[in-house]
Amino acid sequence: MCDWLADSGTMSHIMHRQDTFATYETLPKLTVLGIGGVTASAVGKGMVFLHSKCDGIVHMLQLQNVLHIPKNTNSLLSLGCWEQQQGHSIVIKCRKLSLLTKDDIPVAYGTQLSNRLYQMSFVLAHTLHDTNFAFHVVTCLPFWADWHRHFGHVSYSSLQCLYDKLLVNGFVVDLSTEKPNYIACTEAKMTVTPYGPLAKRYTKVRELMHVDL
Fold it and tell me: What distance in Å separates the CA atoms of residue 163 and residue 57, rounded to the nearest whole number?
């Protein structure tokens, strides 16, 4: 069990323990400005999976682009990031915070503290395959190449945009995998400059033939 503080001020989810990340990539020194001008350094980012028990039902929460700040005392859940993720919403009433899915299903509750932050308790789920799914079995996170094929060989820059902006629900990827270039993709996207206008106008039958190659 681990406690998080739900915060409307932070622009990113923040975690101080590296062992909680399901995926992880190091970052060049990134300075994060806190309250009162206090600064801290984020050394990495990745994905964190949490189990939340709400109304007797266990839900899996997926937090993307979580910053790893070792010197940060508390783990922060950004309410702004939660709302940006596929239509999720937040309800605050009677000193109680509720995180809702796009279908208005509550998946986590938080209680207000004296500093007006909301404390929430979760159980860490290190990887997807720690949970048993009857409808889909996942043994490892998909590679970039897997998503490249699933999306009809779309460019990797477009895939990165989908991932960074959380535009696709369930879009998880092993960030350490390569982005191979397929020759067929390059050839299929090649273009040819159109032919210019004909210098001679043909008027008789069989003077000009069109052949479908």
Answer: 28
